[in-house]
Design goal:
Largest sheet: 4 strands, antiparallel
Structural class: alpha+beta
Strand order of the largest sheet: 2-3-1-4
Strand content: 35-45%
Number of strands: 4
Helix content: 25-40%
Shape: elongated
Radius of gyration: 14 Å
Order of helices and strands: EHEEHEH
Number of helices: 3
Distance between the termini: 15 Å
Length: 101
């Protein structure tokens, strides 16, 4: 029996309107809030910390069933496509806690 499923999505974010790191932080904070509020994701900024016009976020979603986890990830990907910033989905993966042991 599994202990649930973890959906992981890595996002590359292109922010052409960001001229400063403050602009970048604001834009990424908006995306993080959306991922947390809409999908219950845990989100971290994981790369490109010193470049104003790009960022990288990784989000994780935990669900009881694999089907539910995959559906939430698809919805998350669809939502990112609707955002004004260019967001490329770099990687999507569903694992179980047992896979991580």
């Amino acid at each position: 029996m599994t202990n649930g499923f973890v959906g992981i999505v890595c996002l590359d974010v292109h922010l052409p309107g960001s001229a400063t790191l403050k602009d970048r932080r604001s834009a990424l904070a908006h995306l993080r809030r959306g991922l947390v509020e809409r999908f219950g994701a845990a989100v971290a900024e994981v790369g490109d910390l010193d470049t104003p016009w790009q960022g990288r976020l990784t989000a994780a979603i935990v669900r009881q069933s694999q089907t539910d986890c995959e559906e939430r990830l698809r919805a998350l990907e669809d939502w990112t496509a609707e955002q004004p910033d260019a967001i490329a989905v770099r990687q999507v993966r569903v694992v179980t806690p047992e896979d991580l042991a």
